[in-house]
């Protein structure tokens, strides 16, 4: 009898490394043909990784065989499919909005620099509350933990069971 080993291995791999379960990323071993550049955000796909680097972009776009694409992060943004949502609420937020948003923008820049596919895709300022959509569940979690560290307040994380989606609420 044949044992479906491949299936088992695949299942465990997906459970452990949830980013590989992201339908916006190409299946393993079927990465993009190098060099690819995102027409929307100028991220460069090179050595099997994405980079947001103005110098690298200038250097690569001069090459002949460029694969002009929409990167997975821009695709999520276009289709409005976030992997994380952070809600900010409370009077303290209203009084310190600029400062708090600066902290969040810095974290976005740090995250994009490390991995251009992990970024803030949209910020909806609704006056009393602010909604931040991210392309990565981990980034949403990180924003919650940074705010809690900097300003205390209350933070709540609601994780989807496969960890692909995270809803975070911070209030003070
Ligand atoms: Zn892009």
Give structural notes.
The protein has 172 residues and is an alpha+beta fold. The chain folds into 2 domains: 5-71, no CATH class; 77-171. It has 6 helices and 9 strands, in the order αβββαβαβααββαββ. The protein has helices at 5-16, 54-61, 72-79, 91-95, 97-114, 137-151, and strands spanning 36-38, 44-46, 49-51, 67-69, 84-89, 120-125, 129-134, 154-159, 166-171. The strands form 2 sheets. A 5-stranded mixed beta sheet has the order 6-7-5-9-8. The chain has a 4-stranded mixed beta sheet with strand order 3-2-1-4. Helix 5 packs across helix 6. The longest helix is centred in the middle third of the chain and has 18 residues, at 97-114. It starts with a helix and ends with a strand. Residues 1-18 have low confidence and may be disordered. It binds zinc ion.
